[in-house]
Amino acid sequence: MTTAESASLRPAHVTRTTYNATSFGAGALFGIGLGISGMTNPQKVLGFLDVTGAWDPSLAFVMMAALAVHITLSRVIRRRGMPLFDRTFHFPTRKEIDAPLVVGAALFGVGWGLAGFCPGPALVSLASAKAPAIVFVASMTVGMMLQHATRRAPGNSASPSQPAS
Amino acid sequence: MHERKVHAYDSEVTFSALAIAAPLVGGALIGLAASVVLFAHGKVAGISGIFGGLFQREAAAEAGALGAPADQAYRIAFVAGLLAAGLALGALQPGAFAGLNPPPVSLPLVAVAGVLVGFGTRLGGGCTSGHGICGIARFSGRSIVATLTFMATGAVTVFVVRHLLTGAP
Fold first, then answer.
1. What is the ipTM for the molecules in this complex?
2. Nearest alpha-carbon partner for B37 in A36, A139, A27, A97
3. Which of A27, A158, A159 sits opposite B82 (nearest CB)?
4. Is A142 an interface residue toward B (CB < 8 Å)?
5. Cα angle vertex B100, ends B96, B101, to 5°?
6. Nearest Cα to A62, choosing from A35, A43, A42?
7. What separation in angstroms does the CA of A36 have from each of A54, A113, B23?
8. pLDDT in tens, A84-93
């Protein structure tokens, strides 16, 4: 068991339970933050994006506070050299600003502006069992699977990717 | 800012201070949660990546946009945490979901929005958390461009829907 788990990069002393319980705790903290901040209220989000109308700038403070905390803490964390449960950090390595990045972000923004939901707040709202949250998360999942199914690996011969169905 | 100090007990000013305090406190918790993931797991707390990876084969997820190793249990635990937060908010602060009653837009439009958000975040490799918080905190050029782009198209969409199509002021 302990040697088989080395494939997941977890150091041997970190149990699966500790690793996943911490993930659960981080998700819960993230979700509480989203709820307190107002991000789970689509009307408020639409008000924030309504820059030419009755603009509600309060959600800008969410991003400012989150960035202030995360920039400060991540600087300290990265100085450690490695995370607590792993041997290395997993940062995105791509640098190029390409069409998929811009087109994807643009489509996401249109969807965000239509309903006032982005993925995190939508998942938190799913717990309310209200129809808009259920419909949004279900269709978001469909959109993700659609993207996976149409995904090509340009110049990436290393991954013999098959349609994720 | 200086006005708040002068009229510290003015009800209008107190209201606006509260209206700013909640986003600040909530935002700080979000930043803290992203820092926990970085500190403990060494990963980027991008929710579209964490959730979307659930619907990918492990090998494909490994080459995913966020470069995180595939670990389905880690993803499930994080999403379960988000849902648990939703249950807690529903019990303690029902106002958190007040904006869903009535729905912001018709349900068919919500469905269209969901598909766009799902497809777009996976194509663009992140959403408000992965690009908007974690990426910008690393001063990643890709994330800055992505965030400016989705903020812009979001604002344009609201302008078109609210002011061009419905003619609201």
1. 0.87
2. A27
3. A27
4. yes
5. 110
6. A35
7. 22, 21, 7
8. 998 899 999 9
